[in-house]
Amino acid sequence: MDKILPPLRVGNIIEESRVGGPQTRMINVARCLKEDVNTTIIAPTLNSANFQKCCHENGISFKKVPMATVTSGFFRVLKYILLFPVDIFLVCRILVRENIQVVHVSGGSWQYKGLIAGKILGKKVLWHLNDTYSPYIVRSIFSVVNRLADGFIFASERTKLYYSPMIKQGRKSYIIPAPVDTSRFSPELKFRDEVDLLRSWENKFVVGTIANVNPVKGLETFIRTAKCLNDFVFVIVGTVFKSQIQYYQNLVNLCKELGVTNVVFVGGRADVRPLLKRFDLYVCSSSFESSPISVWEAMAMAKPIISTDVGDVAMYVRDDLNGFIVAVGDHDSLVGRINQLKDDESLRLSFGCVCRESAKSKLDILCCARKHAVAYQEVLQ
Q1: H or E stretch including 332?
Q2: Minimal CA–CA distance to 125: which of 158, 153, 98, 144?
Q3: Does residue 103 sit in helix, strand or coil?
């Protein structure tokens, strides 16, 4: 009779509690691996309410740490440096209390506290890298401290290509895209929310994007595209965090300068699916991405995709098969491709069907979660 092993205990640490792609991925993977992996998510207290709520709703252990986070400003940076040892101690204490075996450092190449805490305690550490650009100072520090990690999870081929020259060869590495729950993001589902907002778009062709408002998302390109298509509604679904208020105001000013009146900022949503279902097509205008979960969610909802050539999007969105890829910042090409899809409903439907099948076969949460489980087991060997 086979011996039944207890679940592996993983501490998944991130130094940012505002819910975005990495936080969503952490929750989805932990939920899917419950039977074999006992995950504790560790995150800063600041801005943690929604993150904690999502974890509790999914039955995932969530531990808050009053750790300082990296933000701009001399005194904030000074605070981060001065409290660094204290924060590492607090993380170590949780790792010991939870009897963690594998430390999963989420959030990117500037996430040092979980890495150092894990190595102080002699734990195996997997560092999850999910971007394709980082400032020089971050790259410089990463080039030195990455040797502490026992292995790496790259969110995309492009992320691996970006970071591999900085990493000493011979350590375990895995390419695992951000996952999407294709049963939850399904075009077959019906929604009763957002009735008033959706009614205001009746008989309109709606172009949408989902992105927390920040410069990486290339929303200037989205706005410049909207200027050329006045009869369409362009919708931006995403939270404006306090740190990005000035950037948001710059976008509003750009709309005024260009005379754009058909761009709608609807703010963040706990559930984006009702709005996503209404979109006639989905646009990703980002300047940098790795494995954009918002694009995968749109694919799962059977939406045709037009995206800038960022991250590994071009691996899953193929020209003339399920969408179009354009150069970063090329709003003229975006206009042309949007018009092409607007005038061909059958092409939109065909693209959407292929997107849905691609998301189910290559990006579904069950597939991606299994890859995480393999990484956890192998790093312990």
Answers
A1: helix 331-342
A2: 153
A3: strand
Task: Find all residues with CB under 8 Å of 317, minimum gap 6, and list them.
Answer: 295, 299, 305, 307, 323, 324, 325, 355
270 Cβ contact list (under 8 Å, min separation 6): 50
Torsion angle (degrees, nearest 10) of CA 166, 372, 293, 107: -50
Highest mean pLDDT out of 56-70, 132-146, 249-263:
249-263
Helix (H, G, I), strand (E, B) or coil at 198: helix
Residues whose CB falls within 8 Å of the CB of residue 78, separated by 6 or more in sequence, listed in order: none
Q: What is the pLDDT of residue 336?
A: 97
List strands edge to edge, sheet with 305-308.
Answer: 263-267, 233-237, 206-210, 281-284, 305-308, 323-326
Confidence of residue 5 (pLDDT cuts 50, 70, 90): low
Instruction: Answer yes or no: are the C-beta atoms of 228 and 201 closer than 8 Å.
Output: no
